[in-house]
Amino acid sequence: MQFEGIYTPLVTPYNDDFSLNEEALEQTVDHLITAGVHGIIVAGTTGEYYAQTHDERLDMMHRVKDLIAGRVPMIVGTGAIRTEDAIAYAEAAKDIGADAILVATPPYAYPTGREIALHALAIDRAANLPAMLYNYPGRMSVNMDEETLDRLGRSPNFCAIKESSGDVNRLHMLARDYPHIALSCGMDDQALEFFAWGARSWVCAGSNFAPEAHIALYRACAVEGDFTKGRAIMSAMLPLMRVLEQGGKFIQCIKYGLTLRGIDAGPPRKPLQPLNKDDKRELAEVIRTMDRAIAAIEGA
Fold it and tell me: For the whole model, what pTM was predicted?
């Protein structure tokens, strides 16, 4: 499988009692596909998989698969501390006909490079699906190092990596030494650099509520090769990226951004808390400013 374009790690909309808001989920999927995203990821960090039970995760897989109805590829996250649990999610993804899986480092366990590779290979054997690796040391505490990547080269299913380390030297290393593993941007404020180094996809949480802006940057850089236009779009997006990353309120901002689009994404699950009024006001203003700037760049 070739990962091309914008892949949205889908939020999980909740009612005030933290039950699934089924109507908002359907609205979100339709909104993303209508806007033109190239794929949807279920059970990514933005989907709050870590705050869901096993049954809730399986339910989300089935619901979103039905809602997408073959219109775009669906990728399922297999993140879990225990390899056995990750395998169970991968097998469920295969059973429902997912197009690919997302394979992350087990959190908290602090595995070695060899252990990460054995974990990923066990998931691969169980699912035998195209897989995007997910390197996010900020949450997992360790990198998928060269030993990990070398061992995973035994399986052609590992065809991409969402790189979220923020380390530009790793970006260079991946592009130079592992060209068979396609780069996917996982660090939003480095999207321009990723595209310059040959990335063809971007897994971006902000595309839940601003798919047009993210698609515009992808199109300018990866499709048109117009990095002058890309720099202008990136400059317009950077204030939003700073707001999303500040103060540990990332998921809250994504959900409120979607609410500003008329889809009530609801609160994050505890221990996270919703944005306060000042945070909401700041986010809304940053989005308005970004939208105006990108519309002007695009000539709309």
Answer: 0.97
202 strand-pairing partners? 6, 185
CB atoms within 10 A of CB 300: 10
**Amino acid (1-letter code) at residue 282:** E
Of residues 7, 14, 162, 249, which has the active-site annotation?
A: 162
Position 300 scores a pLDDT of 55
Cα dist from 57 to 15, 128, 264, whole Å: 17, 20, 20
- Structural domains of the chain ordered from first start: 5-224 (3.20.20.70)
Q: How far is CA 218 from the centre of its chain?
A: 15
- The radius of gyration of the chain's CA atoms, rounded to the nearest angstrom, is 18
- Largest CA-CA distance found in the chain, in angstroms, rounded: 51
Q: What is the rounded CA–CA span in Å between residue 176 and residue 36?
A: 31
Which residues have a Cβ under 8 Å from the Cβ of 205 and sit 6 or more positions away? Answer: 8, 9, 44, 45, 46, 188, 244, 250, 251, 254
Mention every residue, 6+ apart, whose C-beta is less than 8 A from residue 280: 256
Give the Cα separation of 157 and 3 in Å (integer). 12
Q: For residue 162, indicate whether it is catalytic.
A: yes
Residues of the chain predicted below pLDDT 70? 247, 300
The catalytic residue among 134, 136, 218, 256 is 134
Specify the 3-state DSSP secondary structure of 192.
Answer: helix
CA 61 – CA 24 distance, rounded (Å):
16
Tell me whether residue 134 is one of the annotated catalytic residues. yes
Q: What are the distances in angstroms from CA 199 to CA 181, 255, 273?
A: 10, 27, 34
**Contact criterion met (CB below 8 Å) for 136 and 102:** no
Q: What is the pLDDT of residue 299?
A: 85
Q: How far apart are CA 229 and CA 213, in angstroms?
A: 13
Q: Are strands 131-135 and 74-77 parallel, antiparallel or unpaired?
A: unpaired
Encoded amino acid at 173, one letter: M
